[in-house]
């Protein structure tokens, strides 16, 4: 899928540029495309190198949390919920532990740990699957919750915002929390309606009620504030929560006599490797997006949508962040590159820059997760997994747009 999207950018840019040259007489368009290619290749490299310090910092901190057993605590806390949501999975089956570990790792931003845990969980669920080439109910529910991406600690987004000199890189934390929760809830309801899961079970209701009460409380508190106060309070709460998590990780490590410094160094090394490893991917996507934009193709699409929005008398500022939203279900790296392009073009603290960040944190990459997780166990019939995942994506994107206008409009 990513290969198709990448080729599409280049071919569409060429066709658009040829039309502008031959029909409109624009003799500069190909020069602008070549200039964009060289410029964005350099920009991608500079961004990746600039990410090294911040990424090393946060992955170091997250490694402390991982070794101090914080993920294990989340696992024990969430296991009763998933044993009810997946009644076909026996109690104490190793699949439940892997599922919760995967979701906990995703929630804490431990991407490197989350994927192998997710594949392990899918394989363990496959051992219970009576039709090995067809996705089971439990596998679909696990995958949709994965794609809706409950994100409590969106480290990568904060890192990119810091790289682009956002005044407060974490000011999107509360909006992301709201959007990602709505996305997850929508995905859960979609699967439950198809699989006839009884969401009124008292254990499920206790968990969902607690989570919802927290989110409603957050929404209720911030809706009572004026916009300037809302921004100030959101920033304060975000920073207090995030630094408190850092202190909790370190304190628990000290309590368990774990060498927090060594854990941090190991995580920081992973951060350095991650920053270096993303260079070719970022170069590939930013250059493709750059030629697509330089040819005028992106403006053509955006202006067409903008005219429709004007005809409907809607505010059109969200359109500049739509490329991230449209790319998100198909490619995580592509959506990340779109987010970077939006922040570079409009500014990290622009409405579009903040909305792109919220969209990026609201959901996961549905088709990538489908391919990796189901591919790992040779499932061919995915049943309703894609439809429910897209529902979660669409709900998360709509929620992201709503909370962006609410907080930053």
How would you describe this protein?
With 409 residues, this protein is mainly α. The protein has one domain (2-408). It has 18 helices and no strands. Helix 8 (173-195) packs antiparallel against helix 18 (385-408) and helix 16 (351-362) runs antiparallel to helix 18 (385-408). The longest helix is centred in the N-terminal third of the chain and has 39 residues, at 29-67. The chain is globular, with a radius of gyration of 22 Å. The mean pLDDT is 83.
Largest sheet: none
User: Strand-residue fraction?
Assistant: under 5%
The mean pLDDT is 83
Our count of helices gives: 18
Assign an overall shape: globular
Which structural class best describes the helix and strand composition? mainly alpha
Q: How many domains make up the 3D coordinates?
A: 1
Number of strands: 0
* Low-confidence regions: none
**Alpha-carbon distance between the termini?**
34 Å
> Roughly what percent helix?
over 70%
Question: Order of SSEs, N→C?
Answer: HHHHHHHHHHHHHHHHHH
Radius of gyration, taken over Cα atoms and rounded to an integer in Å: 22 Å
């Amino acid at each position: 899928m990513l290969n198709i999207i990448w080729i599409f950018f280049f071919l569409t840019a060429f066709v658009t540029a040829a039309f502008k040259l031959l029909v409109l007489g624009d003799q500069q368009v190909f020069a602008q495309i070549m200039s964009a290619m060289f410029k964005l290749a350099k920009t991608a490299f500079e961004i990746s190198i600039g990410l090294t310090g911040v990424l090393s910092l946060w992955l170091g901190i997250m490694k402390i949390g991982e070794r101090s057993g914080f993920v294990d605590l989340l696992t024990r806390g969430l296991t009763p919920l998933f044993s009810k949501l997946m009644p076909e999975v026996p109690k104490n089956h190793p699949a439940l532990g892997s599922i919760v570990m995967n979701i906990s790792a995703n929630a804490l931003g431990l991407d490197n740990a989350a994927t192998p845990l997710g594949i392990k969980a899918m394989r363990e669920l496959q051992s219970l699957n009576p039709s090995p080439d067809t996705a089971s109910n439990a596998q679909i529910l696990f995958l949709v919750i994965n794609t809706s991406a409950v994100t409590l600690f969106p480290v990568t987004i904060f890192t990119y915002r810091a790289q682009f000199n956002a005044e407060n890189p974490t000011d999107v934390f509360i909006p992301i929390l709201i959007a990602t929760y709505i996305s997850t809830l929508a995905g859960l309801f979609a699967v439950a309606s198809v699989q006839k899961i009884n969401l009124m079970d008292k254990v499920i209701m206790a968990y969902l009620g607690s989570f919802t009460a927290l989110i409603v409380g957050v929404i209720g508190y911030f809706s009572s504030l004026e916009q300037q106060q809302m921004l100030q309070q959101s920033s304060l709460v975000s920073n207090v929560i995030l630094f408190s998590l850092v202190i909790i990780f370190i304190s628990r490590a000290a309590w368990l006599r774990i060498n927090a410094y060594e854990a941090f160094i190991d995580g920081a090394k992973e951060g350095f490797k991650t920053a270096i490893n993303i260079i070719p991917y970022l170069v590939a996507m930013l250059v493709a997006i750059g030629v697509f934009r330089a040819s005028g193709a992106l403006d053509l699409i955006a202006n067409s949508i903008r005219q429709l929005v004007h005809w409907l008398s809607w505010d059109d500022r969200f359109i500049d962040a739509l490329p991230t939203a449209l790319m998100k279900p198909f490619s995580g790296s592509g959506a990340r590159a779109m987010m970077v392009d939006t922040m570079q073009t409009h500014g990290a603290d622009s409405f579009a820059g903040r909305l792109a960040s919220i969209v990026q944190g609201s959901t996961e990459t549905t088709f990538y997760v489908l391919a990796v997780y189901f591919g790992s166990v040779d499932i061919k019939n995915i049943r309703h997994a894609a439809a429910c995942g897209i529902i979660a994506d669409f709900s998360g994107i709509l929620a992201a747009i709503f909370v962006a206008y609410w907080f930053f409009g």
